[in-house]
Amino acid sequence: MPSSTNPIPIQTNLAIRPAPSENGNTSSPKSSAAHGTRHKHTRSSYSESSPLTAMSRNNSLSFRPLKRSTPSPDKTIAVINASGRQAASLIRIATAVGYKVRAQLRNLEGVIATEVSTNPNVTVFVGELYLRNKPDDKRDVTVYGHLPGILVNQSLISQLFNGAQLAFINTTFYGNEIQIGEAIADAAKKAGVQHYVYSSMPDHAAYNPDWPSLPLWAAKHEVEKYVRKIGLPATFVYTGIYNNNFTSLLYPLFCMELKPDGSFEWQAPFHPNAKLPWLDAEHDVGPAIIQVFKDGPAKWNGKRIALAYEYLTPLEVCEAFERGLSRRVRYKRGPIELRVKIPEGYRAQLEALEKLFSLNNNDSEKQPPYFGDLELERKCPEDALALWEGPRGLEEYAREIFPLEEEANGMTWMYEDEGETAPEAATEENEEIIDNQDDGGDGDNDSLDEGLVMRGLKRDEESWLA
Length: 466
Hints:
single chain, alpha/beta, 15 helices, 31% helix, globular, disordered N terminus
């Protein structure tokens, strides 16, 4: 297993295409062109100590070819939750190299949904994967387990697979995830899908009865078992913790809290010296999944893939952020703090996660593996690098992307380093985000499936999944 200090032999030259604006400008909504200023984090550079500098100093906005040449494919991919980080990453890459996509979107709100729905190579199906039996039913539909009166949207699912040969499926906790996952698998088999890639996660209790189940991951584990049971030609990817989860907004578990002295602090229950798998989902899921499709079920049928490009301790994560931001970043081991309203399903997930990664465990070697299966975890990051050699690591993410997402959330700290003038009303936008989350109703109105979704000049929807 490579350590954080040994360089990873990679290539770094992938183009990431942001959502187009009406005038064709693909710059950030709060770009330097709009504001006449450019904070230093929009410039690209790597620290000499970064493990991702072995073969190139190019940044993630330069061209990165896929690992092997890609002829123009004549196949269609079915995708659900298409505005999520994983799915959107795949759609960008897949349509760029010639695939057609049939994509389900919960709604058309946000920049990512707009990007997907206006892509000429994407056929969009708008609607939830669940249905409420009664229109006045306002229950939180994120709770794990059977939900009486919450049905599966069979019609939408059936339409999604018409003419599809491939599928990338990442179910979420909206509705009964197990029932929805089984219905999607049945529809894919009925449609004759040739390769079904499912984004799964472990049920830790299945590996060790002393480990608690994380309810949202346990549901994915059950769906994976069903996919195997019905004999779909399938591959199962286990994604590491998203680099993109970090935010200085007061969301639980991955809050990179901005302190009065300008430093950042991340508090979480993970042992400071225990390794965890990390992934830039937005940047690296798409190219990896395309390679899985190219290799096909002849190579990957029935197999699990650890999709993570760095294997770092929390202390090493903070060191990477510190290099990227040129600010002090500290890790504090402590309980998960709930300072905003969250869906009930995610609340139960966090409670179980705090038990799994217990604060009472003082031995890093005894921390349960994130993927449950120790053998799978030992393949980080080799399995992922065999699929895609141009990942964006945490240091680059901290330098290139984190400040832009923070700016979109209304933060202004990135302008302070060089005495720059921040855009007006940024603070008001940030306050509005927090207020909206705190008053968020039953949790059914927020697109919490897979990461931040930009609306206008800010990102006001946050991921509740690691």
